[in-house]
Structure to design on (462 residues):
């Protein structure tokens, strides 16, 4: 019994069909509880008033925007090394989810920035690198759409994902060098274990982040299943044409 | 390798090769800038390093279309892929000839255009140095973009979408070095980082370019 068994599309679809109801349920509960608790169950911030509540959308979306690209990177590597089609299709399925998360993070950030910083947009390193991430997602999706042969498309987009990751990291540090930041640093530094968010805000935020993670997982499984079925129906169509 | 370089250079210089197109585009872009932002000389001198860098970048991008597409159409690339010369080396040569026909003329033309944009006297050395160090990276990254989209019909726009985000770090460090130099600061830190990017991309990108080209030609 190994993880690679699920590279078989039938086994993958079986497992994902069994997992999905739980994932959707858990994601729904976590997102609903996290957002409702965050919006209605927490006090207003001392300085920011009620605008602080956009954090329950902004932070989880930003978190998943980066992790979606990371997941695509891992899936692309698996495709290039082990040639499992499910992996390539999972990367393809994750990209539109990732770009949506990036867009949510950018838009909520602008809405939050307007009352707090007095501007919708600033050329701050964090904002800029998210915009660049958005452009990388756009290019990745466009390349998938442009190449006709599915295997070549998977190959090319995988290499683009690898090269893009390197350049995305480079850009992240380059923009740091280029302009000083307006955005605050991370509130939940994983390395040191400390955090600067008070408990009342932290618990709903944590639930919301878990909910967004589960939601991402459920969406990717669902969309990968769709891609597999599209691929399968195309193969069946080609076979029936050939036999006819 | 040298034969390939000579062939590419000769094709570029002969009639219809497109040599000078990038240069003319660079000229047009920089000349259009005063029309769009106004002729105030202090404003122009502030933005001159950035405009020169952006113009050079766009001129490089424009000429990438021809880098591999013609060789792909007439089958030269298939021959190159089966030749004893590694495809990585062939693409490095292609990038080199692109730089010699596009990047180098831009570096040489930049001071003249800098004069027209009222670039501060201290900035000239920095603009030339940063362009000389940065344009090789633009050529090498551009070769990757061209290899990625060569099999796609009408892939020109798509290539711009793919290549421009990859140009971000190069542009930031290059323009920053030129800007710092132009206002009298020491621009050597961004210049060293820019050189690092150029060296790193020259060393690594041909492998990625060759990999995607093999996938396309397969």
């Amino acid at each position: 019994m190994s993880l690679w068994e699920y590279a078989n599309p039938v086994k993958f679809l079986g497992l994902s069909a069994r997992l999905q109801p739980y994932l959707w349920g858990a994601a729904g509960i976590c997102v609903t509880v996290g957002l409702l608790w965050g919006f209605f169950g927490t006090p207003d911030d001392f300085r920011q008033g009620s605008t602080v509540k956009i954090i329950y959308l902004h932070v989880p979306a930003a978190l998943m925007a980066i992790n979606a690209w990371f997941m695509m990177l891992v899936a692309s590597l698996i495709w290039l090394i082990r040639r499992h089609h499910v992996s390539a299709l999972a990367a393809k399925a994750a990209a539109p989810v990732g770009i949506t998360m990036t867009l949510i993070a950018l838009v909520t950030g602008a809405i939050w920035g307007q009352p707090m910083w007095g501007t919708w947009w600033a050329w701050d390193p964090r904002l800029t690198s998210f915009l660049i991430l958005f452009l990388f997602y756009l290019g990745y999706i466009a390349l998938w759409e442009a190449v006709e042969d599915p295997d070549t498309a998977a190959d090319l987009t995988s290499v683009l994902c690898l090269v893009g990751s390197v350049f995305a990291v480079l850009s992240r540090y380059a923009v740091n060098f280029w302009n000083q930041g307006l955005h605050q640093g991370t509130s939940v530094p994983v390395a040191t274990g400390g955090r600067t968010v008070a408990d009342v805000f932290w618990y709903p935020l944590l639930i919301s982040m878990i909910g967004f993670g589960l939601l991402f997982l459920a969406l990717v499984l669902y969309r990968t299943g769709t891609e597999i079925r599209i691929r399968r129906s195309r193969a069946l169509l080609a076979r029936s044409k050939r036999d006819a | 390798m040298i034969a390939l370089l000579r062939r590419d250079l000769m094709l570029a210089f002969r009639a219809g090769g497109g040599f000078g197109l990038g240069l003319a585009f660079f000229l047009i872009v920089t000349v259009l800038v005063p029309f769009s932002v106004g002729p105030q000389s202090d404003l122009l001198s502030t933005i001159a390093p950035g405009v020169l860098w952006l113009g050079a970048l766009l001129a490089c991008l424009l000429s990438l279309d021809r880098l591999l597409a013609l060789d792909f159409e007439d089958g030269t690339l298939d021959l190159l892929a089966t030749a004893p010369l590694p495809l990585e080396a062939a693409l490095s040569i292609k990038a080199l000839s692109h730089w010699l026909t596009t990047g180098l003329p831009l570096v040489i033309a930049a001071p003249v255009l800098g004069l027209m944009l009222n670039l501060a006297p201290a900035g000239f050395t920095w603009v030339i140095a940063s362009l000389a160090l940065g344009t090789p990276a633009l050529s090498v990254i551009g070769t990757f973009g061209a290899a990625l989209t060569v099999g796609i019909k009408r892939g020109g726009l798509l290539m711009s979408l793919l290549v421009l985000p990859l140009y971000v770090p190069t542009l930031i460090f290059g323009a920053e070095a030129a800007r710092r130099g132009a206002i009298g600061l020491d621009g050597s830190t961004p210049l060293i980082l820019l050189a690092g990017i150029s060296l790193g991309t020259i060393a690594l990108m041909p492998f990625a370019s060759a990999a995607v080209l093999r996938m396309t030609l397969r």
